[in-house]
Amino acid sequence: MLNFTHGLPVTRRRKQLTGYGAANRPVYETIDTVLDARCGLDPGGSRESAQPGVREVVTQPVAYFTADVHITSDDQLIIGGVCYDVTGDPAHWVSPWTGQHIGTVIHLAATRTGG
């Protein structure tokens, strides 16, 4: 697998159904998996809340992989110590010359609130 030489390490955080508890409610366990693929990270932009008295900053980076990574819109990615939510489905780059899959683009978001 081709990888970014100076890419960032990525941990995928996924909730996995482990059984059912009281009142037959689903019980989930959080599983962290360090991915073999490293990513390039476009830090993207950020926006702040315009509401008086609310301090919220939302950052929207984009992760680029040179491989087909198994990420879903329900996952979180930990990159550089920051936990990001995956927003939307991962998009796959397809070469217009060869028709082969050459990469994956994943849009992310992190929300930080403070007083």
Summarize the structure.
The chain is an all-beta fold and 115 residues long.
Architecture overview:
It is a single chain. The chain contains no helices and eight strands. The model has no long low-confidence stretch (mean pLDDT 87). The N and C termini lie far apart (45 Å). Helix content is 0%, strand content 58%. The chain has 115 residues and is mainly β. 13% of the residues are buried.
Secondary-structure map:
Elements: E1 10-20, E2 26-34, E3 40-48, E4 55-65, E5 76-79, E6 82-86, E7 91-94, E8 101-114
Antiparallel strand pairs: 1-2, 1-5, 3-4, 4-8, 5-6, 6-8, 7-8
List keywords for this structure.
115 residues; mainly beta; 8 strands; 0% helix
